[in-house]
Amino acid sequence: MKRILLGAFEINQVNLTSQGLWAHPEQQTYRYKDLDYWLDLARLLERGYFDFLFLADSYGYPHLRGETPDVTFEQAVEVPNNDPMLLIPALASVTSDLHFAVTTSTTFEEPYANARRFATLDHLTKGRIGWNVVTTSSAVVSELFGRPQLAHDKRYARARDFLDLSYKLFEGSWEEGSVVVDKAARLYADPSRVHPIKHEGPYFTSHGYFDSEPSPQRTPVIVQAGTSSTGRAFAAANAEIVFLHGKDSEMLRGQVSDIRTAAESAGRGRDAIKAISGLSVVTGPSRSAADEKLEEYLEWVNPDAARAYYAMMTGIDLAALDPDASFSTVSTDGGKSHVERYRDTTVREASADFLRRGMRELILVGTPAEVADQIAGIVSDTDLDGFNYTPFVSPGSYADLVDSVVPELQRMGLVRTKHTRDTFRQRLFGAGSHLPGTHPGSLFRTDTRLAETSA
Amino acid sequence: MKRILLGAFEINQVNLTSQGLWAHPEQQTYRYKDLDYWLDLARLLERGYFDFLFLADSYGYPHLRGETPDVTFEQAVEVPNNDPMLLIPALASVTSDLHFAVTTSTTFEEPYANARRFATLDHLTKGRIGWNVVTTSSAVVSELFGRPQLAHDKRYARARDFLDLSYKLFEGSWEEGSVVVDKAARLYADPSRVHPIKHEGPYFTSHGYFDSEPSPQRTPVIVQAGTSSTGRAFAAANAEIVFLHGKDSEMLRGQVSDIRTAAESAGRGRDAIKAISGLSVVTGPSRSAADEKLEEYLEWVNPDAARAYYAMMTGIDLAALDPDASFSTVSTDGGKSHVERYRDTTVREASADFLRRGMRELILVGTPAEVADQIAGIVSDTDLDGFNYTPFVSPGSYADLVDSVVPELQRMGLVRTKHTRDTFRQRLFGAGSHLPGTHPGSLFRTDTRLAETSA
């Protein structure tokens, strides 16, 4: 059985995806502003052999029918939310082999500043960083940033330009070996091996040197979760981890196969992208105890808050639709096709399912051994490479997994049993820390040595 | 004798201001990419009763006569440099009463994203954050970011607009008491007390709610170091700490008096701004031993690197000027008047002084008792409120101060003797954590209660 990647899906706010669950007595997310909450969580994840902490992010909040409904603030639907990137250095300081992926938007960040932030993180964490690249479609964020909203295809064109410039900065400015740090010779770096980059793209222009010297991975591990056809093509070309959106093995199997084929078509090989899915787990001493526990969690979901959240994530106002209509007739922004899962249902059925599940993908319920068996079955059925574990309550749902399910998965050979100090990219592919020569980012290197060392 | 503020002046790179000193055997700054280096430094500063760590920052590097000279990379003149903000959460996690000020540029950052970063830091540090507001004049950075260079006055107009928008976000969106977090009532925040802001300024537009709930200080402590007349007016209106640039008591006395008068004219009171100056200290068992130690440090300065650095900081290429000309005839960008200190000297004399001093202000040399006496004398002569301590070698110069001079200053009542958990603003003014009602940022509040609580 192949080893799976175990990620934790988090966000720097109080509701993860089940709107209203912040108020559950066991829920500690109201402490999200407190570093100690996060430090303890990172220690728990490392103890539980998690491979990475995935930090989602978006500016903005629900806005529908011309206003932000009161329930947004009453139930803290995506707001308040704080910057998640700033958590990472502190979490890195109390862990040694937990990796981190964090989201930034190519639509709203500055590429040069963004690249320096990721290079700094890669240095400070010793190569434990991934970048979840998103293109933000939200009209609310456009209003907050005072910028015109970009159409779907333009967002991706901008994202491609953003990545090309980022690759040049990460890969093309400082040759391998350019940094000498020879105190005796009073030589810090060899100027003949540091080069100004020149980028004149449709959205971004940049001339000059990258401020940061090469970090362990140079380019952070590229993560992507886009579901539109444009998003999938972007992922096939660039991503090293793709976050899929399916609620069962059947949906996921097709998506995994598609992304492997697309990576192959992009000249990168079928195993160049790790495919992961969301996973929630509720365990108990018996199946019925676990079922009861899940139902108890779901009682905390606030339907109005869930609908506001759904509208924010998909652009679809469920309350404004005919409950008996087929969901397949609902039109949405091309970037929001995680509604795909409801294609063959009515609006009523889709709404009911969403109120239970939020944006969760797989939800597994049972005894620890049952859940471990289900996970093994899903991996076998779908060829998934791993999961983004999405807790109901934090840290309780993590502790449940770490203390009961992870040991089972370790026995089955699905989860590693030893801590290893490596870079994120080494963890994923077992090879070098740098982008492989088949990745488009490697094209921007000025020296061939780097491609050799990462082969 | 009034208590002084003790800050540490740092930068996330290997040369602080003496270009070439990175190679000194005692210099540990080559470890700047290593979190442990910074964690140890923060612990040392807290042990030594430092009030804050000041993190300077600028994108870019020297560029003169159309090129970046080789010495830039050979001696690491301002490059490589990493993002300093990302250090803070980790440093906050190992300290409890050390405050932090970090630089971001109103010319190159996005106000909404910048405000969310500072709010997040203020939350994570429990109110220990200051923002050093700079307007970046560098043509190099304009090229890196692919933007037209702004003239001096436009940079400050943009900075004013940036601050107005920031104040609205920090102060005007969430009323005091709007965040309830009542699990039993299932109520996170009271929507009637959260308001969208509306900003339509000459440079920035923003409509909507601030993503972050109110942090302990809301607006971070505003720090400013501009030296032009526009910069001074900006500081008089906004700053709570001003970083002055003078090399002796006489220069500093005038600047302190000027800023107090300007603050008073701005309706804020003579004590509304803390005036600090750079300070370097070299101690030894005797005056002559200390003198020798200083000379030994200065031997490591690389003249070409120092000149490249001077050109970057001031726009003046010393090597291209007539050595016998009066320095007062040298023209420079209005934002770079720290050349004022050389007004009455020749170019040759100015160059010689700069090669020794870099951008350092006061340099005090002697036994610990002698240095402590000099500091007391300077405070008495100038009415300065404190210092930004600028080490020659790190952490050695900090350890020298902490272990020998600080105890003397404590005996004299100049430095506190107890650790106190407070916010940065409380530390500075002994009052509330929020902006006082006389600060222009307070005008953007929607509720008057906040002004009352901070009076």
TrEMBL record, chains A, B:
Signal peptide: none annotated. Gene3D superfamilies: Luciferase-like domain. Residues 25-378 form the Luciferase-like domain. InterPro entries: Diverse_substr_monoxygenases, Luciferase-like_dom, Luciferase-like_sf, NTA_MOA. It holds the Pfam family Bac_luciferase. The keyword Flavoprotein applies. Residues 430-455 are annotated as: Disordered. FMN binds at residues 57, 103, 152, 156, 228. The keyword Ribosomal protein does not apply. Belongs to the NtaA/SnaA/DszA monooxygenase family. NCBIfam families: FMN_nitrolo (TIGR03860). This is LLM class flavin-dependent oxidoreductase. It comes from Kribbella turkmenica. One of its GO terms (molecular function) is monooxygenase activity. Keywords: Flavoprotein, FMN, Monooxygenase, Oxidoreductase. Residues 446-455 have a biased composition (Basic and acidic residues).
